[in-house]
Every structure is written in structure tokens, then in C-alpha cells.
Design a protein that fits this description.
GO terms for molecular function: fluoride channel activity; metal ion binding. Belongs to the fluoride channel Fluc/FEX (TC 1.A.43) family. This is Fluoride-specific ion channel FluC. Keywords: Cell inner membrane, Cell membrane, Ion channel, Ion transport, Membrane, Metal-binding, Sodium, Transmembrane, Transmembrane helix, Transport. With 131 residues, the protein is mainly α. Helix content is 81%, strand content 0%. It folds into two domains: 94 residues, no CATH class; 35 residues. It is built from five helices and no strands. Helix 2 packs antiparallel against helix 3, helix 2 crosses helix 4 and helix 4 packs antiparallel against helix 5. It is globular, with a radius of gyration of 18 Å. The protein starts with a helix and ends in a 5-residue tail after the last helix.
Amino acid sequence: MDYLWIMIGSALGGAARFWVTGFVAEQTGGIFPWGTVLINVSGSFLIGFFGSLTGAEGRFVVGESARLFVMIGLCGGFTTFSSFSLQTLNLMRQGEMIRAGGNIALSVVFCLLAVWLGHVVAVAINQMKGA
């Protein structure tokens, strides 16, 4: 049943991301990815807020299915940046500043390299004759 809640949350998060990024692009002219920035920041806020509010030391107790729905499903579908942010915050809260910094540096660098590499490969495939 947990998979069902995660799938529903992911679908809702993905649809929300699509709508928000489109709406923000229409409002701002799409010159800068403000929609994505908004998605990443708000998703990070949501996972940090909900995770802390409903965690072991939280004020509210919710079932594991609810946490999976919101934190993995909804936030995961909305943005994967929220998971990265929560993991980095947890490292910092544990005093693991070097690991937190490493997580930040590696995530940003490798994600940028991966998107660049994906772009390069796609351009190469697009330029192949007969494609």
C-alpha cells in the first residue's frame, strides 16, 4: 500500500511542478528559471517542515504512509532538490559540516555535469544522419 501512496504523491507533485513552472514562466517571461527556483525552494521548505513536524521529535505523529506520501511522493514528484536539502541539513545538524559541504559540492557539480553530458549526447544523436 505504501507504493500506492508514493505513486499518488508523485503524480500530484509532478503535476504541481508542471503547473507552477509554466505559470511562473508566463509571468516572468521565462528568461530565468524562476519557476524551478521556486519549486526547489518551496519543496525544500515543505520536506524540512513536514519531516521535522512529524518526525521522532516532532509535534505531530502521523503514520509512515503519510510521511511516505508527502516526503517521497509529493516532494519527490515536485522536486528531488528537497531530499538533497533535507539530507544536507541533517548532516549539518549532526555537526558533519565537511560532509554537508561535500554533499553540496558534489551534488551541484555532478548534476551540472550530468545535464551537460546528457545535452551533448542528445545533440550528437540529433545530428546523426538518418535519425
